[in-house]
Amino acid sequence: MTTTELAVSASGLVKTFGDFTAVDGIDLEIRRGEVFGVLGPNGAGKTTTLKMLATLLPIDAGKAEIFGVDVKANPHQVRQLVGVTGQYASVDENLTATENLVLFGRLLGMSGKAARAASEELLESFGLQEAAKRQISKFSGGMRRRLDLAASLLSRPPLIFLDEPTTGLDPRTRGQMWDTIRTLVAGGSTVLLTTQYLDEADQLADRIAVIDRGAKVAEGTSEQLKTSVGSSTLHLRLSDKHQVAAAAAVAEKVTGERPVLTPEAGGVNVPLADADRAADVLIGLRHAGISITTANVQQPTLDEVFLALTGHGTESAENPDGPAHAANHTDIPEEVA
Amino acid sequence: MAALISTYAVADRPLKAHPGVGETISQTLTMAHRAYLKMMRNPEQFFDVTIQPLLFTAMFAYIFGGAISGDVKAYLPTIITGILAQTALTASMSRGTQLREDMDKGVFDRFKALPIARIAPLAGPAVADLLRYGIAATLTIAVGLAMGYRPGGGVGGVLAGWALTIFAGWSLSWIFTWLGTIMKSAGGVQGTGMMIMFPLTFLSPAFVPKETMPGWLQAFVDVNPVTLVINATRDLMNAGDVTLSVVWALVGCAAVVAVFAPISVRSYSKFL
Q1: Best CA proximity match to B38, nearest among A120, A36, A53, A137
Q2: A153 → closest Cβ in B5, B13, B120
Q3: Which residue among A179, A198, A238, B254 sits deepest, i.e. has the most Cβ atoms within 10 Å of its Cβ?
Q4: What are the structural domain ranges in chain B?
């Protein structure tokens, strides 16, 4: 039954909510021991896909198998193989950390003693032992996520779903979460990770599927994805907004690539095959008499990958002030979670 | 980090196709324990089963007693048993709103993802609620006794009526559990619950003899499950007799559970 080499095998997954097709024919193949990232903006269908695979949502069409077990036919068996850590920490606010873990342990069939022992050990591993007797409603966002992940590991599932594990966390907490995930991976787990952040997928995932509007638009390693949009981008802000077109022409002449413009803000984003070419672009601008206020070279952002793969940005409509940066922001206060 | 942050590398453990009966019971009791812990941390959950029986019993007895039975004391055998059924119903109504609120929280995602019986998250809190029904029934009877109620059924009859009230509350809570699983907001559950609760309590002999109502209304009163419970409670507490009414009340309550528990589990597994 579980002899297949694939941890997840899904084909033609479809989920509709009324008239809206949230997931429109997604195929996924995840090998054992692999960290697989599903990358996409809000509303792309990442969470919906994951929820279908985790038996949290019925599959409208298509087929999915977890370690060879059919998700539709044997949901109870699939639940024994998968640990799910949700986007919003799925722990009980009114209970303490220990009470939560003991509750889940008992539900998994552990004796009270075994559940308490496992809870203690997990809290220690996750650096939460001091908060063991505190109610979750008093936890920070980062602590909740860690506890949530700890709860998913109680049953030691061979496959772990992490749904946007760091969305809404500050950079420091995010780094801690990454370390935890790395430890997990080192232990041999198979991980399916959804994220809005390219650098997160980049840091953690062996392979990445990019999804947009319910469909998979690309799949590959992070290197492959990045080279599809140039290795980095030069972000320029001009002193005079009216020179945007002229600056773009100069940049295109130097690099051979067409820059992405944000004319309202006087922004010119130049894709660079090689970061060293940034200097050539700046020299070209000086020769053309175009003056700049800021310039910085960045790794490709999710937005740029998106632009390249789909022809539209992730949230450019709402964010005229430099959409390329939006996907990189991590300084959202913890309380959001 | 310690070794626990690891998982089985290979999925080669034996997998169960369905949760067994023993597991289901143990999971339900675990969920009941969770509900109990939450209750103890949020004493507001006891307002409806403490203040309401105290207030309603005294209020209705003094308001209606003279008009309906000539004096308050003669009315007590009617009103105490009526209020018992009413508090059982109102106390069970909160099951729906609380389930809805609970289900909107992330923790229910985890309950759904765990390999546990689907009924456990629904049945657990219903079991913990037995405590609430017990408090409500005890207080109502105590207020009645303090006001001069002398039940003809004796200690045994009163205990039997008390137990029947708790069983009725638990059974009826499945109607509201079902509402909680199909409605989108706690407010909606509350509103619909009220619409169900008022006809069920007032179109019954809880406060007035049904003979004073028009004939067509009596037809509904006769089939109202709350009427069955009230008649049975009266037979037990006021006469000490185990009559056919008692059998009907038990059958009625069991029928409510037999209908609403399965459809609750079905809509819970489907729509969450």
Answers
A1: A137
A2: B5
A3: A198
A4: 21-271
| ipTM tops 0.95 | no
Residue A134 is which amino acid? R
- Provide, as residue numbers in chain B, all residues whose Cβ is less than 8 Å from the Cβ of A184: 5-7
Residue A121 and residue B2 in contact, taking contact as beta carbons nearer than 8 Å = yes
| Structural tokens at position B5 | 């942050």
Nearest Cα residue in chain B from A150: B5
What does the pLDDT profile of chain A (337 residues) look like in tens digits? Answer: 444 689 999 999 999 998 899 999 999 999 988 999 999 888 889 999 999 999 989 999 999 999 999 999 999 999 999 999 877 768 888 899 999 999 999 999 999 999 999 999 999 988 888 888 988 888 888 888 889 989 998 988 889 999 988 888 888 888 888 888 888 888 778 999 999 888 888 888 999 999 989 999 889 888 787 777 666 888 899 998 888 999 999 999 888 888 888 888 888 988 887 788 889 999 999 999 999 999 988 877 666 677 777 766 554 333 333 333 333 333 333 333 3
- Residue B24: closest CA among chain A residues belongs to which residue? A107
Interface probe with A: pick from B38, B114, B122, B266, most Cβ of A within 10 Å? B114
B270: nearest CA in chain A? A58
Q: How many helices (H) and strands (E) does chain A have?
A: 12, 14
Element (DSSP H or E) covering residue A304: helix A302-310
Whose CA is closest to A36, among A12, A10, A56? Answer: A10
| A81/B15 touch (CB, cutoff 8 Å), yes or no | yes
Q: Which residues of B touch A86 (CB under 8 A)?
A: 106, 109-110
Would you list the DSSP string of B6-75? ---SS--S---SS--HHHHHHHHHHHHHHHHHHHHH-GGGGHHHHHHHHHHHHHHHHHHHHHHHSSHHHH
